[in-house]
Amino acid sequence: MSRFTTMCIAAGLAAAALVTAVPARAGYYIIRWDNTGVCQVWSEAFAFKPIQWPSGYKVVSHPVPTFNDAFTLQVRLRQQGRCTL
């Protein structure tokens, strides 16, 4: 193999090692819409944020690792009266 090919393979392996070493940031949190009080589970894996029209929103929880944890938290917030739905 030529030196260039060897360098490209080494660089590719190094980049792959770095990508696998960085932990994935996939969590869920609860947002509350201002105009209705409805709470919604939102994923950090989405590449976009919710559209703030015609209402804004506020994040009302810390990130949790699974959807089931987020849904349980949403139900608890509803029982406490902090969310309407």
Helix content: 25-40%
Main sheet specs:
3 strands, antiparallel
Order of helices and strands: HEEEH
Domain module count: 1
Q: Which whole number gives the mean pLDDT?
A: 82
- Uncertain segments of ≥5 residues (pLDDT<50)? 18-23
Short description:
The protein has 85 residues and is α+β, with helices and mostly antiparallel strands. It contains two helices and three strands.
Your description of this structure?
There is one protein chain. Strand 1 and strand 2 (39-43) form a beta hairpin. Residues 18-23 have low confidence and may be disordered. A 3-stranded antiparallel beta sheet has the order 2-1-3. The chain contains 2 helices and 3 strands. With 85 residues, it is of the alpha+beta class. It starts with a helix and ends in a 6-residue tail after the last helix. The protein is elongated. Residues 1-26 form the signal peptide.
What keywords describe this structure?
alpha+beta; signal; elongated; 38% helix; 3 strands; 2 helices; 85 residues; 3-stranded antiparallel beta sheet
Topology of this structure?
Elements: H1 3-21, E1 28-33, E2 39-43, E3 57-59, H2 67-79
Antiparallel strand pairs: 1-2, 1-3
